[in-house]
Amino acid sequence: MIVDEIAKHFSIPVFETGNDLSTGSGYVMSCNAVLAKPMAFMNRSGPPVLLLLDKLGLNVENMIVVHDDIDLDFGRIKIKKKGGHGGHRGIKSLMDALGTGEFTRIRMGIGRPEYGSDVIDHVLGRFSSEETAQLPRFIETGREATVTVLCKGTKEGMNKFNRKLNT
Prior knowledge:
The structure is a single chain. By secondary structure, the chain is of the alpha+beta class. It has a domain of 116 residues: Rossmann fold (3-Layer(aba) Sandwich), CATH 3.40.50. The protein has six helices and six strands. The strands form two sheets. Strands 1-2-3 form a three-stranded antiparallel sheet, sandwiched between helices. The protein has a three-stranded mixed sheet with strand order 4-6-5. Helix 1 packs across helix 5. The radius of gyration is 15 Å and the shape is globular.
C-alpha cells in the first residue's frame, strides 16, 4: 500500500515487469527512486528483489524495505537501519537471498491478533472498521516516512518517526 501511495503521489507508473515484480522508476521529490513490489508469496520475495538489484547494479545498503509488523501496535511506524528478520518470513526471504540484513526497514505496525486467533489470518485478513478509518492517515504517514528516509537519510527518518504514534 505504501509503494502504491508513493507511486500515486509522485506520478510514478508501476507495472508488472516479470520475475514476480512490479516496478517503476522516477523522482520522489528530487531523489531518483525505483519502486518495487514483489508479487510472489511473501516468503519467496527475496529472489525477485535480488534479481532487480543485480539488474540495476544497486547495493542492498541503498534499499528501503517497507513491511508489516505484528510486534508494533496498529498505526505505529518504526524505522530500523539493519538487523535480523524477527520471525518475519518476507524479511527472512530477503536476507536469505541477499546474504545480509544490512538494509533499512520501515516497519508498519498492524498489531497482534486477539488471543487464540491465527497470526496468518490476522496478517492476510481485513482491517477492523476502526483500523480502516485510520488507514488513510497511516498510509500517508508511511509514505512520509519512506520519502524522509529516501531523501534525507535513515537517521533523519528515525528521529522523526520512531518517537510517536503515527495515527
